Amino acid sequence: MRTPATLKPDCTSSAQSPDDPHPSRPAHKLGTSTLSVHGGESRRKPSDAVTDSIVCASTYIFDDTQSIIDFIEHKQPREEYGRYGSPNEKVVEGKLAALEGGEDAIVFSSGMAAIVGLLMAKLNAGDEIVFFDQCYHRSREFCYKHLARFGVVTHQVPTGDFAAMSAAITTRTKMLVSESPTNPHLTCIDLEQFVALAKRHQVETLIDATLATPGNLRPLNYGVDYVLHSATKYLGGHNDLLAGCIVGSKQQLDPVRNLRGIMGAVNSAHNLYLLQRGLKTFELRLQRHNQNGQAIAEFLHEHPRVERVYYPGLPSHPTHEIAKKTMRGFGGLVTFLVKDADWRQTADIVDRVKIPRIGPSLGGVESLIEQPLVMSYFSQTPEDRQKFGIPDNMIRMSCGIEDTQDLIDDLQQALET
Amino acid sequence: MSINSKKFRTRAIHVGNAPDPQTGAVIPPIHLSSTFVQPGAGEWGKFDYSRSGNPTRSAVQETLASLEGGCGALAFASGMAATHCAAMLLSAGDHLIAGMDIYGGSYRLFHRVCATAGVEVSLVDLQQPEALSKAIRPNTKMLWLEGIGNPRLSIPDLPALATAAHAAGLLVGVDNTFATPALMRPLELGADIVMHSATKYLAGHSDCLAGVLAVKSLELLDRLYFLQNATGAVLSPFECFLLARGLKTLDLRVREQSRSALKIAQFLESHGGVKSVLYPGLASHPDHARAQKLLDGSFGAMITFEADCDFETTKRIVKSTDLFRLAVSLGAVESLIEQPATMSHASYDAAARRQAGITDSLIRLSVGLEDVDDLIADLDAVLPAHGASRGPGVATP
Questions:
Q1: Chains A & B: contacts with CB separation below 8 Å
Q2: Smallest Cβ distance to A357: which of B19, B249, B327?
């Protein structure tokens, strides 16, 4: 039996200089689409197959007692038991690290498992974190309802308000957290300021870059410590798997990996294979999501029934300048408010759309549409909705990779019926 | 507003992918069931046994039929199983005419399987006008050709050939593997049957074997379905799922891969160490004008070329590239390189190989989704240096 060759080093890294997030590619670096296809993969695979095999084993056998001891003493890197790692997981982690330009990546069974895994590994009772307040409502819920039970204090401050964030930092603060862009307002964070503030206070930083993806934004290049993705979205890209990941330095991620091995939020080999397969077309899909997002945002911006569009690629977006400076494209998520519409009239538009499916989630090839009031904030009080900036007439659309004109025609008929 | 009236890319994502009515799942479930519970003895439900029909297979067949502009499609365990099913329309004593520039496996099927079943086979150079009508005999029943030929990337004049074949009562089958329905829809150009090795661009990720037949006549669909059900080379539900997933990015992949292929073909044509390049998107290709007419704005992602070197050096080139992997097959996200004489077309006998223009120094590229600059750098590093006298610049094997 032949054994696979070792990792080809030039397929595993795409680190770039921190002062320029998207320079023209140095000659010795591989392009993003090349990394999407080959990053993290062995050149020689078992049986000489061109694609990786799906290794379903729950456990891995040792030749003899000595080989167990060698493994424990770190003389022989290899697999042990599925909860601690697997061949399919290593390939996907290598590919994600390569795409993000990071040293290491850890894959979890969902995006929430990833953020929970990171925060649980990094925070102790008495510690504090400061969050920008526009964020996924389940991330917020985990901090307030569950981290609080373990004695961790979460401060939420208005998104992008660095004075407020600075004021909220205490000697017990361990981490600053934000999404960029945020969900659903698509606010882009000035990462230079974010990191500078954290360095001043010697605290770590976490950016949830799910909506940006490594194709549009590389937070590590700004000195962010941890980048989080719900890989369910653009990275998997086909609305057919759940996964999450954290990218950062190996030294900082080792404790997270250890805790994951205990908590067990790992992916099955089948799921990892689908994620790897999805990543192969990542760069291509993202380009199309960016194009569709921009075109739909521009269409909505001009439409008389639309009161306001939130899209970082539009000059009207409050953080357009930051977006232009830091991002290569602006993604497929577009949020807008319907003019003079109550919640029911807004819902009617959602119900009239034919191509996008009505459902939560985003980032897949199929377009999805939803009304945040109904989908995520239905049981919250009007005061809370106002606090989180979720008006009744808000619609969030995740543009897929369908034909642009088909999507515009569809929105047009839904708005004008 | 019917989804079937939408553009290609939208249909590739939505036709055959209705959300699951039971759960609302946006991706239809994978139905592994081999058999289905029936309403009563002698009463049949929509599905009875998975060889005869399976919900996951039906769904992807619906997508495929829509993309090819057909009334129906059938999914097979491999491209050869699909071609064989089409060939089983012929009976002993019938005559089949096939193009000269076809896949080695089809050549083998026609000459060594169909022939032993009593079907007569002739290969005809379809690039020669009149060659077809000269080859038609009273017992000729089918014309088989490739939309873009393999490996010389010839583009037959399908509308004219179909008209001539139909006048003589022939069925016209087109292997559309290289062009894909994103670039050419043979049923709209006169073909009766379109076939795919869906292993290639349609699935697109080098991870499933699959074949497809699509037709525009319900009568023909019934005959082919009977043969498929009777002989059993159906596609498994898992592969149907992977194929359906691949189809969603088909248009994006094929157009991007074609863009890269054109740049690589131009690079090769300007390279001093390259003797000749065959790519339908180059003005130098003998069928360039026809390619512009029959293909939808892109020219596919297969390139054939001859380096200025001997057989042994060619062998060394194909094993020296880094991103281009040495393997048969094509059409996936990973770029591949091969030598047709010893690999994809080794099943041709030597004389037929010569006649089809498959020289020893021919190299075939399948351009994948990698960054085109990376791919060009990869080729540049292993091609003979400019001017043959300076010898090959191939890395030490």
A1: 110
A2: B19
A382 Cβ contact list (under 8 Å, min separation 6): none
Identify all chain B residues contacting A36, using CB atoms and an 8 Å cutoff. 369
Rounded Cα–Cα distance for residues A66 and A68 (Å): 5
Chain B residues near residue A30 by CB distance under 8 angstroms = 370-371, 374
Residue with tokens 């290491």: A104
Q: Which of A387, A352, A363, A330 is CA-nearest to residue A371?
A: A352
Q: What is the pLDDT of residues B229-254, one digit of tens each?
A: 999 999 999 999 999 999 999 999 99
Task: Measure Cα distances from A298 to A312, A325, A373 in Å.
Answer: 11, 20, 24
Chain A nearest C-alpha distance from B245 (Å): 7
Please state, in angstroms and as integers, the Cα–Cα distance from residue A335 to each residue in A136, A319, A340, A363, B227, following that order: 14, 14, 16, 14, 52
Backbone angles phi, psi at A154, to 5 degrees: -110, 125
- DSSP for B55-124? HHHHHHHHHHHHHHT-SEEEEESSHHHHHHHHHTT--TT-EEEEESS--HHHHHIIIIIIGGGT-EEEEE
List the 230-269 stretch of A: residues with Cβ below 8 A of B.
Answer: 238-240
H/E stretch holding A75 reads none
Q: Is 80 exceeded by the pLDDT of residue B297? A: yes
Which residues in chain A are closer than 8 Å to B374, comparing Cβ atoms? 30-31, 34
DSSP lists the bridge partners of residue B121 as B96
- Residues B252-262 pLDDT 10s: 999 999 999 99
Between chains, do B26 and A405 touch, taking CB under 8 Å as contact? no
- How close B241 gets to chain A, by Cα (Å)? 11
Find the CB nearest B207 among A277, A281, A357.
A277
> Does residue A336 have a pLDDT over 80?
yes
Nearest CB partner across the interface for A50, out of B17, B327, B370: B327
Sorted by sequence, the CB contacts under 8 Å of residue A256 that are 6+ apart come out as A106, A117, A118, A121, A122, A246
What letter does residue B4 receive in the DSSP assignment? G
Tokens of A3: 């054994």
Beta-carbon separation of A359 and B26 below 8 A:
yes
In terms of pLDDT, which residue wins out, A299 or B329?
A299
Q: Which of A212, A140, A185 is nearest to A363 (CA)?
A: A212
Using the predicted structure, report yes or no on whether residue B390 has a pLDDT greater than 50.
Answer: no
d(CA A330, CA A350): 23
